Amino acid sequence: xxxxxLRAIPAVEKVLQALGDAGLPRPMVVEVVRRExxxxxxxxxxxxxxxxxxxxxxxxxDLRSSRIRPLxxxxxxxxxxxxxxxxxxxRVIESLSLIGANYNNxxxxxxxxxxxxxxxxxxxxxxxxxxxxxxxxxxxxxxALVLILRHFCDASATSGANSAHPKNEVIISRGxxxxxxxxxxxxxxxxxxxxxxxxxxTTNRTTLxxxxxxxxxxxxxxxxxxxxxxxxxxxVESPPAEEIAALARQKxxxxxxxxxSGAMIETQVTPGLEHEPTPAEVIRRGVxxxxxxxxxxxxxxxxxxxxxxxxxxxxxxRDPFFRxxxxxxxxxxxxEATADIYMRGxxxxxxxxxxxxxxxxxxxxxxxxxxxxxxxxxxxxxxxxQAQIGGGTxxxxxxxxxxxxxxxxxxxxxxxxxxxxxQPLPVIGYVARGRVKLDLRTIFVRQDAAVIAAxxxxxxxx
Length: 462
Ligand SMILES: *Cc1c(COP(=O)(O)O)cnc(C)c1O
Known about the structure:
- The protein is built from 18 helices and 17 strands.
- The protein is an alpha/beta fold.
- It has three domains: 3-65; 72-84 and 353-460, Alpha-Beta Complex (Aspartate Aminotransferase, domain 1), CATH 3.90.1150.180; 90-348, Type I PLP-dependent aspartate aminotransferase-like (Major domain) (Aspartate Aminotransferase, domain 2, 3-Layer(aba) Sandwich), CATH 3.40.640.10.
- The longest helix is centred in the first third of the chain and has 19 residues, at 141-159.
- Pyridoxal-5'-phosphate binds at residues 140-142, 180, 184, 225-226, 228, 258, 260-261, 293, 304, 392.
- Pyridoxal-5'-phosphate (PLP) binds next to α7 and β10.
């Protein structure tokens, strides 16, 4: 019985032949085939050869679509965490390819012809942008926070005269024990870093007295976490950062703020947006160190930037753990190019350009796309939408936007949206009131022709 079942399992070679070109490297295809056949071996009944092939084709399609590739973002969410946060501009890409394709002076002093410091220019330019004494950079903001916490907790624990009382308590308001996106929870980050959480205040109200009472000989630092992705309203209170800073100075405890997003622009000048505190503003209020992401509102590559007092930044850079979190040459060059753009006052940051586009510009693009869709079995109309910053920033804000709304004659909206996602250059929109909506604000002008092609292909599908 068992033998006859085994014999019914098709040979790998035969399956490979039947599959033809799967559009993936052969070793990957062989691996998928082996796994699928192994699963069959465990199952009770073995399907017909054709349906085995169909299943394997499905598995290969899933694998192919999991490859990283560009897509068109019609969601209206500018910094979309699932879509790689901020797209990089032309200048940044130029720098990436130039540095990536050549040897470079990453750790070489050209003047002396010897080994040199890493990221010296970048660190200075970030310090200038943040109006801070010094700055440095690690892989992401989560890493920046872990480095800071580990450093001030561990270092104090071993160097303290009284080692029975390790200085590893981190004071934080109960209203700031937040979760940012998937897998980033402040209490967990603290625990990972060897810090003991000392919560003060309540969810909605924390006073300066709450902070003052919590400070003791175990206190390693005071942490403030920006409520990036939610807001609280009503009976709420938290002391101004200036007052916490004064208290921290008086008690000789470092005061650190996890700002999350690194806005270098005054967001409130855009209608619909609130003010997002900038790193420079936070430093001015008296925090000793601020950390934020490179790929949120700063719109550079993924990175975690730390800025503040030179003494503290230098100490962090000397921590052995810093070495484990350092960025590679591509990130450093991309971030350097991004910082340069801000310092020149250029408008070459894609997310900021998208934010600035007027609804008139967006509407005329939507109309052109609509006009190019005539003769298809669908109705295309120009609609309205609300674009959002996304990436866990400015949760209360939205910007008026223009959409292209698609209503297919016979295909339900959800299915038509799936067809658009299934194109060679996937187009992602959202469904509202039975329509597939594509927000023009997050679609690059250079992608308009590709949007038309994708809609045409999706509409023509049987
Ligand atoms: C986004 C965010 C983080 C995490 O930053 P990553 O760069 O994604 O690691 C941490 N803290 C706050 C407040 C954030 O908004």
